[in-house]
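The protein record now logged underneath.
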Amino acid sequence: MGIHATGTFLGMKTVVPVMKENGGGSIINISSIAGLTGGSGASAYTASKGAVRMLTKGAAIEFAKDSIRVNSVHPGVVETPMTEELLKNEQIRGMLEQTTPLPRFGQPEDIAQGVLYLASDESSFVTGIELPIDGGYAAQ
């Protein structure tokens, strides 16, 4: 909770005044599919990512008048150094492969492209959304 929920809150608390002075901006909070589905088996992690989701929605409404857009990204399983050990376990890997409709795990670049869109002027009328980048997991 301290890292995911409080850290996200404090980050926004710090940047919003600067964005207001500069006429707006875009905040992109990183949550997780666990913040959408609650099925990770780690309730504290799920709760913290759900908090990021709802903090994002509240902030999107609160700061829209200041031309500050606030959105969240919800990655699924992404092959990174952080997930390397987990994905070495064949049983866990197989289960995760079966629950991800697209036949691969995500790559950091997949997440970066979604963040780039939300940071860009191409999303100038987008605020308060949850963008799952999860290979179709949350669509089930």
Summary: The chain has one domain: 2-139. Residues 71 and 128 are 5 Å apart (CA to CA). The two ends are 27 Å apart (CA to CA). The helical segments are 2-21, 34-37, 43-63, 84-88, 90-99, 108-119.
